[in-house]
Amino acid sequence: MTQPLIDIKGVTHAYQTQSGPLPVLDNLNVSVPEGGFAAVVGPSGCGKSTLTRLIAGLMKPDTGEVWLHGERVKGPRSTVGMAFQNPVLLEWRSILKNVLLPLEIVPTKLSKKEAEDRARHLLELVGLDGFEDKRPSELSGGMRQRASLCRALIHQPEVLILDEPFGALDAFTREDLWQIMHRVKEEEPFTGVLITHDLRESVFLADEVIVLSGRPATTQYRLKVPMDGPRDLEHLYTPETAEMLAILRHQIEIAQGRAPAESSEVAE
Fold it and tell me: Which of 14, 202, 222, 243 maximizes the CB count within 10 A of its CB?
């Protein structure tokens, strides 16, 4: 059996507060194969963003282990790219220079010209060619998020973590970016983890949807998304997708305590 690229084993974590420990994760087990794309959903505050920080090595679990490509994560990893709901682009830098920023921090073998060529290629891939010299304030929210995605990919990371990157966008812009994500993954292979509250987004982008329980979170349910090949928005309106969304909504209700708990299942 092939070892997963991301392997989270029995992770437990609590935040220290003035009133004592606040348990967030409890014996969490999550694995993502190389080249896979997992979406993580669950109730607000259940620890989804904590999970991303553990994968990136930005924090350590109280117990359990996080492994990437057969190596235990003990600190920040240069092989991880991250994009967030807030693009956090630097206003005093052009869009091109914002995209290039990680290469000023992460060691690279690319020459200056090669790095700029790669940045321009990524911007063209997401539809931002011609905007390289603009400032962030001159771009719409969706365009800034596209630039943020390019910045997360510029150093060719093994793992791309997306923490609700499309959550603040309007519905049309969000759906446009979902389609762009599929084009990007075809040209820029990575192993992806998406944190989202949008169930439609989860089944459109991911190969597997992982439902976390209420806090302290553990893996409550895993849903395989049986859609191979290119996807378009029409896939969201099929009976198969409607069934998957109904299953996920029910699982969220269980996680929120609004429906009776069931035994842990995996839907193929």
Answer: 202
Q: Which residues contact 10 (CB under 8 A, 6 or more apart)?
A: 27, 28, 29, 63, 64, 65
Structure tokens at 138: 């001159």
| pLDDT less than 70: residues of the chain | 1-2, 228-229, 259, 261-268
pLDDT at 268: 44
Contacting residues for 11 by C-beta, under 8 A, at least 6 apart: 25, 27, 28, 29, 54, 61, 63, 64, 65, 66
The model's pLDDT over 154-163, given as tens digits with 9 standing for 90+, comes to 998 999 999 9
In what order do the strands lie in the sheet containing 6-17? Answer: 20-32, 6-17, 63-68, 71-72
- Tell me which residue of 17, 8, 157, 143 sits closest to 72, measured CA to CA: 8
Q: Quick: pLDDT tens for 170-194.
A: 888 888 889 988 888 888 889 999 9
Please tell us whether the domain made up of 1-79+193-268 is placed in CATH 3.40.50.300.
yes
| Amino acid in the structure at residue 59 | M
Residues in the chain: 268
The predicted structure's pLDDT at residue 75: 86
Amino acid occupying residue 133: D
Residue 132 tokens read as 């390289």
For residue 208, the surrounding DSSP H or E stretch is strand 208-212
226 and 56 Cβ atoms separated by less than 8 Å: no
Cα 149 to Cα 9, 85, 95, 98, 189: the distances in Å are: 28, 11, 12, 11, 14
DSSP secondary-structure letter at 158?
S
* Domain boundaries along the sequence of the chain: 1-79+193-268
Bridge partners, 261 (sequence order)? none
Instruction: Calculate the average pLDDT of the chain.
Output: 88
